[in-house]
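Recall the central idea of this unit: under ordinary conditions, the amino acid sequence of a chain determines the structure it adopts. In this exercise we apply that idea directly, starting from the sequence alone.
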Amino acid sequence: MKINAGDTAWVLISTALVLFMTPGLALFYGGMVRAKNVLGMLMQNFFSMGLITVLWAAIGYSLAFGGTGPWIGNFDFAWLHNAHLVAPPGLELTIPPALFMTYQMMFAVITPALITGAIADRMRFSAWAIFLGLWAVLVYSPVAHWVFAPAGWLFKRGALDFAGGTVVHVNAGVAALALIIVLGKRRGWPKHPMRAHSLPLTLLGTGILWFGWFGFNAGSALAANGVAVQAFLNTTLAAAAGMLGWLVVERLRFGHFTTLGAASGAVAGLVAITPCAGFVGGMAPVIIGALTGAACFWAVHLKFRFGYDDSLDVIGVHLVGGILGSLLLGLFADVSVNAAGRNGVFAGGGWSLLGEQAIAVGATVVFSFVVTLVIALVLKAVMPGGIRVSEEDEETGLDLSQHSETGYAFDRV
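Accordingly, the structure predicted from this sequence is:
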């Protein structure tokens, strides 16, 4: 293994950028909830930075990247044994193995945090804390092994996922659906409006997410090279196009452009380009972002038709955006951009890659949904008081009922 100083410096920066995304996500979500729940939302996200960091070091990294089995890793790197000396099997790194472990840790931190937007306003914090740890070990690590580890069965089949379309967004999005089915709807939804209390916070969070996403996508090249540059460019093109795609449809449908629509469209574009970032070029990211922005605008309204209370549109943006991005990669992938990839339909590669992408999406959806549903049902059955706050606590708000704090001082004391 030959360590490259430039590659190491870039991935160090990218690691910090990806960590910064979790506070950005907290603000993005926090601005969209009612004032009485803002700290509850921030705490659910920040707690992931604490618990998942330790779990990843103890066991998560080893289960995701240890061993050569197709379904799950082993305990070779448990408690970080030799993790600073030995790269995961099949990976040729130009960065220290400990840096690769740390970079992947940040993905493990933010992925379950995405779920919090769907369950806003109604889950007990103690239940979330236990669910978070179980989900990270039982769902995230196996799926990461399937897709990211060279030994994983989806990796070996040839499915592509540059930075986490299936591992992060599809995985978290479908898990959010399973969890809210068990939790049920918020009191009063959808009859009573539950308006965002601070859209400026949401826009600030969007800006932080967009900024951090450069580390998420371009950092996944694991080197300071041309692929990283292409991924960087694709990331911002898709975010911009996603914003425009959402706003155009919103204007046609409702007659106005909203700041929440701009933020949601940008995030939808970022989600969609995540699996594609290092494998597509030219105007492909613009097309992918615009199509996904428009599609996710319509997808967020499905909750009213089907009656599931996805509070902050995790399913409509992350699940739908992740699926679209993963499948569109099968159309736009181009080996002239990245020789480690495969040609998609439009580059003359036929339909094979699209088929593998569909298999990867389908496997992730089924596995994550089923295991998440089981975790949620077991916790609901065994935890005293269940996993949902009482009606009184929900009316009071999570800030006071779960944390004995308030986000804002409305008096003059």
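The chain is about 65% helix and 0% strand.
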